[in-house]
Amino acid sequence: MQTQRWLPWVLAVSLAGCETRRPVEEAGQPSRQVPVVSQLPTDTSGRARRPLPPALPLDTEAAEPWTRLQTALRRHDTAQLNQLIDPALGLWVVEDGATGLVITRVAAGAAFRQAYARVPLQSVERQLQPCSALLAVPQFPDIDCGERRNGRSGYERDGCFGGPATDFKALDLWSRTRLKDGTLAQGQAAQARVGRTVLHTRSGFRFHFAKRPGNAGRWYLVFVDLRTPCIS
């Protein structure tokens, strides 16, 4: 009789122990997967993601004269700048004047050294931040003049870019321009020879180079366009 009296209590304690152990045993089973919440929710908006722009190749055509030009301007080295000027074509500096466009022709040799002080080339180096590389592009980046503020260039991509001079050769530079130290025929002949353009986005300056025939493919600086890309 005593055994029968204790039996219900023993059964109750045993069942309680089983219930206590079951969650621990189940938690230790490797087959049970614990759900993990992702830190970044999946984008289900259907918006197209803008691809990263591809890396641009280096411009091997104008890299050498461009590097020499930057070095000469920073050092105010008139002798090295003079070597970049084609004796026949000269150097043409394009700038905004008080009443319109002004284009000045500077001849190579002693004339260049004498004219250097009165041509705005000496102030170019202050705005010509060095570029790590000259990148080749088939078309130059566009500019949004509304974004040209607070130190931003306004161009969709910053840097130094070398590309074809097709747009420059199609420009009408001469119809309403004041020419200094050169003739219209000389200017048009020089413009027709240009084959490569370099854009420096931080300043907005453009540098135009021509390859001189019969001189081992050497490139010369022919035009320096110092006009601002946006009218304030």
Structure description:
With 232 residues, the protein is an alpha/beta fold. Helices cover 28% and strands 19% of the residues. It contains six helices and eight strands; from the N terminus they run H-H-H-E-E-H-E-E-H-E-H-E-E-E. An eight-stranded mixed beta sheet has the order 3-4-6-7-8-1-2-5. The longest helix is centred in the N-terminal third of the chain and has 26 residues, at 2-27.
Structural descriptors:
single chain, 232 residues, alpha/beta, 8-stranded mixed β-sheet, 6 helices, globular
Write the layout of secondary structure elements.
Blueprint: H1 2-27, H2 63-75, H3 78-83, E1 91-96, E2 101-106, H4 110-115, E3 134-136, E4 160-164, H5 166-169, E5 177-180, H6 184-193, E6 194-200, E7 205-211, E8 219-225
Parallel strand pairs: 1-8, 2-5, 3-4
Antiparallel strand pairs: 1-2, 4-6, 6-7, 7-8
Q: What is the CA-based Rg, rounded?
A: 36 Å
Question: Averaged pLDDT, please?
Answer: 77
User: Alpha-carbon distance between the termini?
Assistant: 110 Å
As residue ranges, the low-confidence spans are: 6-16, 18-41
- Name the shape in a single word: globular
Structural class: alpha/beta
Q: Which range does the strand content fall in?
A: 15-25%
Region (Disordered): 23-58
